[in-house]
Amino acid sequence: MKKLFGFFLMVTLALALVACGNGGEETPPVDTEPTTTNTASISGATEVTITVGDEFNHLTGVSAMDTETGDITSSMIVEGLSALNTNAPGNYTLTYKVTGSDGNLVTVTRLIIVLTAQGCGVHEDLVNGICVKRPATVIRIMHGAPYEVDPFHANYTGTQQQAKQEKQNQVEEQFNVDILYVPYPSNAPWGPDRVEAIIQSSISGNHLADIYWSVSDWIQRLAVAEAIVPVDKYLATHGSNIRAGYREVGEFRGQVYGFESGLLTVSSGLYYNADLVAALGVQNPTQMFLDGNWNWTTFEAWAQSVKTALTSLGGNRYALGGMPSEYAEHMVPLNGGSLINKNTGRVAFAQNPALETYTFLSSIYTKGLFEPTPAYDAGSPDWMAGNVAMYPGQLWFLTADNRWGQLPFELGFVPYPKSPTYTGGYASPISGVAVYHVASGMTAAKEELVFRVWNELQMWKTDAGYETEFENTLITKFDQAIYVEAYLEIYDKIYLDLINAVGIGSYGEYGWRRNINLAIREGTARTVMDSIKPIYDAALEDYLGK
């Protein structure tokens, strides 16, 4: 982590210089991403147009150089050659890759256009001696926030905008398509309403889009209603870059219905008001975790010391905020249990590891360590006002304006604590993962085209590349290197939990989340969990298709 601390020091100095140079005036925040100067580079891999039957050597004029070791052309790997056929008109993509002396992989894509003997492209027809382009196929990608993913959107908030614009232009030309990112209709803002809108459009034969962006918890309903289709037959070819983690998340009854690029990472943790914690003079919980001193016992002692210190400030102030269910969901696996672990295929929220967790949470609840009026998601007014020391949350909350992006205090991060008797590794449940689906009702050719185009649009990276990207993301979200260090300790320690995926509403009469919140407060967890377990057993059997 020396390198990481050095980075923060340089950023601090740079910000100080900027502040001196602009006379103290505030500069609007700019969405930037860390850049890396690679030692390796590839040149000469430019677009080529040839005619059917022409000879073509993919290495002619292409070279790779490294600023430290010189010519590394012989180490270059070229992908896509098996699909290249210079005897058939088409637009073919070759991918040139080489790893530099710095260990970074450099990738360049190259378009090879093979024209017909008459000089027409693969998407053109010869009409009266003139090559006429066929109408483009429109591909609609429906997303909850198109400005996050559409690189041509006027209010685009994503990264690598120019590179993604170039990629989309290339894909549209290669496959003769027009890619449109469209929002969900106003009657389908989220959750059940969105799922119902997708299903009803499928029933009517007028699908809202060709690709839907949704969450993994809704795959069962969408798949059973035949509103989306499995993509397994494409995974060995067009979808070969999709990682195993996303294939597992997108799987339902042995087939993959959901997919996404990148790596799955831990999304949840405990966040604390670092300004308040420092002012109280209590131990820093992140440092306690890094020192190996963060378990249920020390967590309770820390919360108790915060409660004691808060009394001197007066008013309504609390050590812990948020719903007990958020703590339970993430602390049960840190006692060797789970709620509904997909790998075991059993409802486990009424087993001993879970019951012990509920008992512990009940004990600290009765000691007055929790705020009396908690809230989900963005948090209670007391948390937002800085009167609560610690709150459960998700990483994306930190910079979201409708969550914690505007909080007036520094946010620290610490993973959930383990049970003192638990000897296993860190484990964080994931559910409700954002994924894409291919709509049903298309011809086989259109369906394959849609899935292939989505894959070609992605900025695929190696595992190492995604890990570096994630670390850079953490650096942009946290104010202190110590929080980044703690997050990197556990970022990939995940498992898929089905508690929200088996078709029982989390906050309905029989929902685990609603019931465990009441049970922890009242100390009746065993009785309450036993009462709802048969309902979840039946739902899980249906989910698994038994």
What does this structure look like?
Helix content is 34%, strand content 20%. The chain is an alpha+beta fold and 546 residues long. The protein has 3 domains: 39-122, Immunoglobulin-like, CATH 2.60.40.10; 135-263 and 433-463, D-Maltodextrin-Binding Protein, domain 2, CATH 3.40.190.10; 268-430 and 497-544, 3-Layer(aba) Sandwich (D-Maltodextrin-Binding Protein, domain 2). Helix 9 (324-331) runs antiparallel to helix 10 and helix 10 crosses helix 15. The longest helix has 20 residues, at 2-21.
Within the CATH hierarchy, at the fold level, what is the topology of the largest domain?
D-Maltodextrin-Binding Protein, domain 2
Strands of the biggest beta sheet: in what spatial order?
A: 11-10-12-23-13
Helix tally equals: 16
First and last CA, distance: 49 Å
List the helices and strands and how they pair.
Blueprint: H1 2-21, E1 40-43, E2 48-51, E3 63-66, E4 70-71, E5 77-79, E6 90-99, E7 105-115, E8 124-127, E9 130-133, E10 137-143, H2 161-175, E11 177-183, H3 191-204, E12 211-215, H4 219-224, E13 228-229, H5 244-249, E14 251-252, E15 255-256, E16 268-273, H6 274-280, H7 285-290, H8 296-310, E17 318-320, H9 324-331, E18 340-341, E19 346-347, H10 352-366, H11 381-384, E20 388-394, E21 411-414, E22 428-430, E23 434-439, H12 444-457, H13 463-477, H14 481-490, E24 494-496, H15 512-522, H16 525-544
Parallel strand pairs: 2-7, 10-11, 10-12, 17-20, 22-24
Antiparallel strand pairs: 1-3, 3-4, 5-6, 6-7, 8-9, 12-23, 13-23, 14-15, 16-20, 16-21, 18-19
Helix pairs in contact: 2-12, 9-10, 9-15, 10-15, 15-16
